[in-house]
Write a structure and sequence with these properties.
By secondary structure, the protein is an all-alpha fold. The chain contains 7 helices and no strands.
Length: about 180
């Protein structure tokens, strides 16, 4: 039960970090960049079936808190987690050094894809090409600033989640050792 509450606390912490920091620092980004990075981190540290227990509640809670209803971000994040898992198993890139930078690029690319899909949805709803263009085509420098700032945040998140998962595994092992 303790592990469950720790996981829920981590999810709320990530959502709070996204809403209070990234949305304010990067208002031009419609995609929840930090949460998509967290989805990639969870997928790298845990296998895809095990990452669903963290990805699905994370995205559903984010949709519920930010929009007040469940949107299509949850579906996108699940498909993105599956794609990341598929990519990590096929490429066999280590989760160190340059490999983490490549996975950060994957997370950033996923955020740009979400941004493009978001602009298409706006275009379909409003039938205004100018609004759709303004939702995706922003000053070129803004994306580079976001990308350069996202690398250290992604790598820090990876190591925090990895240590957190290791700590939770030790807690679960102690519980089973106490039974014997």
């Amino acid at each position: 039960m303790k592990v469950f509450f720790f996981r829920i606390a981590l999810l709320f912490l990530f959502i709070l970090f996204q809403l209070s920091f990234f949305d304010i620092l990067f208002p031009w980004f419609r995609a929840p960049l930090f949460l998509l990075g967290a989805v990639v981190v969870f997928t790298l540290i845990r296998s895809f079936p095990r990452t669903l227990s963290m990805t699905l509640p994370l995205t559903l809670l984010f949709d519920a808190i930010s929009l007040g209803a469940v949107g299509w971000f949850s579906l996108y994040a699940l498909l993105f987690a599956y794609g990341t898992s598929f990519l990590s198993r096929r490429l066999l890139i280590e989760h160190r050094g340059v490999g983490l930078v490549l996975y950060a690029l994957v997370a950033f690319g996923g955020a740009l894809l979400y941004q493009a899909l978001f602009s298409l949805v706006i275009y379909q709803e409003t039938a205004s090409p100018q609004m759709a263009r303004s939702a995706f085509l922003l000053p070129y420098e803004n994306y580079w600033v976001s990308l350069l700032f996202f690398f250290p945040i992604f790598i820090t998140t990876y190591f925090i989640v990895k240590r957190f998962e290791g700590y939770l595994e030790r807690i679960e092992q102690r519980r089973f050792l106490n039974v014997r």
